[in-house]
Amino acid sequence: MKTVEKINRFFSQFLLWIGGAFLAAMIMLTCGNIFLRLVWVPIPGAYELMGYFGAMAAALALAHTQIRRGHIAVDVLVNSFSKNIRRFLNVTNSALCLVFFILIAWQIGAKGWTLWRTGEVSESLRIIYYPFVYGTALGCAALALVFLTDLLLVLFPGKEVRG
Hints:
163 residues
């Protein structure tokens, strides 16, 4: 189990760095666009690129955020339940989220495949954008892997639990 957790952490950290690079690109693009607007020459397609880069930054940070328990959770009611009920709820939540994000990754990947096969390009810049769709699917698949690990940790509580 420890090996799976290490792989999970490494992969999510790697995706987080890539997402951070997209976030840095968004900052540079925004600053460049603001500066160039002062001289009346905005960057063409900046709005379109911001959308793609934002999707990548968010999707690639999902797994790392789940590992760190950074998503919003209101557990006032759940904490009042017994240990067995909380364990059941954790198993149910992890299993449902695992299935949900596997389906999301699959459907987004299928959409990327369609875009790649048809050769569709973006509206303003006329660039291929299926790599951004695949990147979003990868982020969802990585999140599903984290939920799989969470499920295994709840089902086999004697193993090392991450903190």
